[in-house]
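Revision sheet: structure tokens.
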Amino acid sequence: MTRSLHVARRCALVGALLLGCVGLAPATDTALGAPPPDRVATARAGATSEDACGPRIARPGGRSWTCSFADDFRGIRIDGRKWVVQDSALTGFHTGQTCYTRHASNVLVRRGTLRLTARTVEPFRCGRLPRAFHTRYTGGMIGTKGKFSQAFGRFEVRARFPEGDRSGIHGGLWMYPVDLTYGAWPESGEIDVAEWWSSEPTQVIPSLHYDGRKRSVDSGFDCWVSTPTRFHTYTLVWLRRVMRFSIDGRECFHRRWRPDPPQQAPQPFDQPFSMILNMGVGRTFGRQRVSRYTRFPAQYVVDYVRAWR
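Predicted:
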């Protein structure tokens, strides 16, 4: 996430996804496309046992990962047992110029996928005073805070991003601590598993944010996909001393983080984090600005989200 988006998050993110979000109901999915290479390798190796996440996958050390969270979006609504839906009008939380809503035009489960859509509308006031702001952009965001969180493990999303090569659209899968154990952002950390900006549509960036972050080594600027509008699998393997990020089973970035004192690794990444999916817009200024040239509607389509211990 960029610094400009985090200014708003510091003030409003704590509790926003839980206190101001309304979970909907059960959720439809059919597998889209071929499975990623690591899944194929597991199956060919003779792994016949499965769990809620599918065929078991080997973890470092030889044992298998155990599924702890799985949503293939089967049904017609968001599964309220797993997710809460962000509603900026109730919480006051927003990123950039995005007013997140629960409306089906922004958050929809359809044909086995979750669809989060950023749209342009007639200018309106989002929320109530004193947190209200004027905007002409709506978007979709869901998160697992209060439903699921975990420290360490394997986390994965299979998704495709919208078309577009002009700045303004922003989304992906990211993770945020349930409790701000070490203080306000960035002291308690943030993990961006797959962050996408329309200004550089073939780059899907993983990042670590913490006290002591160095942009040049804590973001994976070598993570690219030639066809972001097709489904790809974005994976994080979070170990005690290293984070490993891959696309379609191929590692593109890893990082052994080094927080500033008084923290010591694995701090701050030793606490439970929740998962968040969003599609929205940036601010009206800067490199990632949203403007009349930005292409709308912009839809982030998610096939599944999974986690393992």
